[in-house]
Amino acid sequence: MKQMNHIAHYHLPGLFEFVDLYQVFLPLFYEHREYFYDWCDIGSLYGCPADCIWGGGRLGAEEARVQEALALAQKYGISARLTFSNSLLRPEHLSDPRCNALCARLAGTDGVQNGIIVHAELLTAYLRQTYPQLYLVSSTTKVLDQFPAFVQELNRPEFRYVVADYRLNNHFAELDQLSPHQREKTEFLCNTCCWTGCQDRRACYEAVSREVLGEDGPEHVCRAPHAEEGYRFSRAMQSPAFISLDAIQQDYLPRGFTQFKIEGRSLGSALILEFLLYYLTRPAYQLTVREDIYLSNTLDLF
User: Fold this and answer.
1) Mean pLDDT in residue range 201-219
2) Domain annotation covers residue 139
3) In a domain, 2, yes or no
4) Which of 61-75, 96-110, 187-201, 204-218 has the highest mean pLDDT?
């Protein structure tokens, strides 16, 4: 194994959707660091309440305990990110009171800086002008699956991070050409179950954006192999785009890539726990962490 000189920063799903899980997991992570790898930390928790028209990517939870979720992130010094990646916003949407109130709340907190994951150029310009206290992340929903377009996005100064399209994950011949600064800005989506041959990813995200806005439009039907079975971590692991624990340690960190996003806002908390065990938890303590969470939380499997 190559020597590592970097810390892996994980960006975890479900700031609002999985607040019950994180209320139990975060104390374990910070009070029992011996349970977890010392070469990783939690860079952010991201999510979006269901009643936010700026939201996109995946639909949020029906019940969003916003105050509780944001207080939890602030307590542990974790950056809170709002997933405002709706791709179909128009000027009249920028005055939405709910979304603006959330941005103002994140912008007004002390301590670690909070951020916004954004797609629409219209919203990007508005956020930069109205909430300069918040950093911006370019969303993977832009589907920048050609390397030159990805590099162009990395070079934009308005974004602190750019989440790469998952199909670029293992293009090391091209990734090795990036400068140290570009590598610091690159965020990889590790565990997507999406088919690498998909040609409908943009249409899929647009369908979700329309649904969030309450607008009519064509329904998107996923045509990927095994789509009817939904997300399976075991299948995601077989994808050529999957970024394994070993790959993070041996291939990405030595190259100076340190930002790793775990998807899963539309999944269940039991599966999110499996991601936390796989990516963050030492094997000898995985059962300990699992038992502590099951016994300390109302985490239902069925």
Assistant:
1) 70
2) yes
3) no
4) 96-110
Rounded CA separation 3/111 (Å): 32
Question: Looking at residue 132, what is its pLDDT?
Answer: 97
Residue holding tokens 């009249």?
92
Q: Which residues pair with 44 in a beta bridge?
A: 11, 79
What is the number of domains present in the chain?
1
* pLDDT the model gives residue 1: 38
The verdict on residue 302 lying in a domain is no
pTM of the model: 0.89
Residue span of the structural domain in which 159 resides: 8-296
Rounded CA-CA distance 107/39 in Å is: 29
Round to whole Å and give the CA distance between 34 and 36: 5
| Lookup: tokens for 40 | 């990783």
CATH of the domain at 94: 3.20.20
Indicate whether 301 belongs to any domain: no
